[in-house]
Amino acid sequence: MKKYIWALLPLVMLGACKKDFENLNTNPKLFPTVPAPTLITQAERVLSNTVTSANVNNNVFRLVEQQWQETTYNDESLYNFDTRNINRQMWNFLFRDVLNNLKLAKDIIPNDPTIVGDAVKKNDLAIADLLQVYGFYYLVSTFGDVPYSQAFDSANNFPKYDDAATIYKDLLKRVDADIAALTVASASYGTADIIYGGSVAKWKKFAYSLKLKMGMTIADYDAALAKTTVQDAVTGGVFTANTDNATLVYQAATPNTNPIWVDLVQSGRFDFVACSTLANQLNNNNGLIDPRASKYFKALDAGGKVLGADPGVKANYDSFSHAGDIMIAATAPGLLLDYAEIAFYQAEAVAKGFIAGDASTYYAKGVQASFDYWTAGDATAFIAANPYSTNNLAIQKWVANYNRGWDAWIETRRLDFPVLYKPATGAFSDFPVRFKYPVDEANVNPANYKAASAAIGGDVVTTRLFFDKNVMPK
Questions:
Q1: Dihedral angle, C-alpha 144, 150, 151, 157, nearest 10 °
Q2: Which residues touch 13 (CB under 8 Å, ≥6 apart)?
Q3: How far apart (Å, rounded) are the C-alpha atoms in residues 40 and 22?
Q4: CB atoms within 10 A of CB 438
Q5: Which of 328, 356, 380 is the C-terminal boundary of a domain?
Q6: Fewer CB within 10 A of the terminal residue: the chain, N end or C end?
Q7: Both 292 and 217 in a single domain?
Q8: Helix ranges, 53-153 (H)
């Protein structure tokens, strides 16, 4: 009997040790899963950083849109996007760090012990989904067909690419569902939401404004769908002032500073100056210097004009104007969607017969909103000298989108104005109207990559995407 007890003792001790080790490896103060609000905070931060960054490894749209020109290097100004794998960075930031975090948050919210009340959970789910729609908007309008229906499936390492137009229409349906789910009388993320501080009313306005933006983006592709989308958005209630802007306020202390400050000031970089294309527009508006010029740039000439370098040509930093102090401040806000943009959309919607109203009135509101944001000045004289026309609408939208290069690029392709000429010498292609898929996709998911490339008309930067119907002047 004694022999059997000794024989069983190692098994007993093994079981006891296993139980003890399990207890030692469990922290009773930790949640079994990450709380959803922390994922929302991180997704919002990365999303804002991605569309705001001035790092040429991540965001080159200020160069593509000829707002800035490069000094030491000029590859990106010449449309060379392959050397730094810029498309891979954009793809990864949006898919991996934004959309996937939002998907995880949506999975956690229904059973998250930190979120109390079904109405709050519905609000949280809707806001997370709206942020996903926003992220997919940029992916689809940049690359075309992308993984969508099979994205984020851990059991499928080789997701198919869905048709971009089909994705877009589904995104519009999701916005409608999110609007219906939002209950203004109930709470949401609170301070974990670093865009609107948990204000459901502001998120609802954001949803309608995003719907307006998406409706106008497809105005040349599907006018009927665009019209009903825009009408519903305006009826629902879009932005009416800069206080509605979707803004992420950065902090003075790292690591929560504005990425432009990180890229230029903290890093001690002198890589960018004003581009002559934007400088010429700011310097001459029917005889007026645009009052925003002194806010957009510093180191102006004696007459208050911006000194701009030609696109694609390496520039001496000390010979030209540089990014203004407002935008390179550590606490400069990241801007995801603003009232000026919404007012300009409404001006265009009136001109197209989508909604009632006066196009010139909305145009004036858009210009004034941009002035309010940058200078707090009265735009009346400027508007009188630069009255509403379809060309002036496109130009002023482009000027107002300074520091929002990604959106400026989408609108330049859609409106085909203002004309941005490719650099005189050395350009790697004609003006880019999409970005190529990351090389990782061709290597890791080759069958679906090839199918997607064929479906859109070729994986090159000159392939026009579904919403971009008109041919841009050269």
A1: -110
A2: none
A3: 31
A4: 20
A5: 328
A6: N
A7: no
A8: 61-64, 86-92, 100-108, 118-143
| Structural domain range at position 237 | 36-63+79-244+432-456
- Whether the Cβ atoms of residue 292 and residue 402 lie closer than 8 Å to each other: yes
- Can you say how many angstroms the Cα of residue 360 is from the centroid of all Cα atoms in its chain? 28
Measured in residues, the chain has a length of 474
Q: Are residues 132 and 279 in the same domain?
A: no
CA distance 382 to 291: 9
Furthest-apart CA atoms within the chain: distance in Å: 108
The residue written with tokens 């392709």 in the block is 413
How far is it, in rounded angstroms, from Cα 108 to Cα 43?
Answer: 15
Based on the number of CB atoms within 10 Å of its own CB, is 16 exposed (0-12), middle (13-18) or buried (19 or more)?
exposed
pTM (2 d.p.)? 0.92
pLDDT tens track, the chain, 474 positions: 433 333 333 333 334 444 444 455 555 554 557 899 999 999 999 999 999 999 999 999 999 999 999 999 999 999 999 999 999 999 999 999 999 999 999 999 999 988 999 999 999 999 999 999 999 999 999 999 999 999 999 899 999 999 999 999 999 999 999 999 999 999 999 999 999 999 999 999 999 999 999 999 999 999 999 999 999 999 999 999 999 999 999 999 999 999 999 999 999 999 999 999 999 999 999 989 999 999 999 999 999 999 999 999 999 999 999 999 999 999 999 999 999 999 999 999 999 999 999 999 999 999 999 999 999 999 999 999 999 999 999 999 999 999 999 999 999 999 999 989 889 889 999 999 999 999 999 999 999 999 999 999 999 999 999 999 875 444
Contact 62, 405 (CB under 8 A): yes
Other beta carbons less than 10 A from residue 385's beta carbon: 11
Sign for the pseudo-dihedral over CA of 283, 323, 56, 415: negative
For 275-312, letters b (16+ CB in 10 Å) and e give bbbbbebbbebeeebbbbbbbbbebbeeeebbbbbbbb
Instruction: Quickly count: other Cβ atoms within 10 Å of residue 376's Cβ.
Output: 9
Asked if residues 346 and 101 have their Cβ atoms less than 8 Å apart, the reply is: no
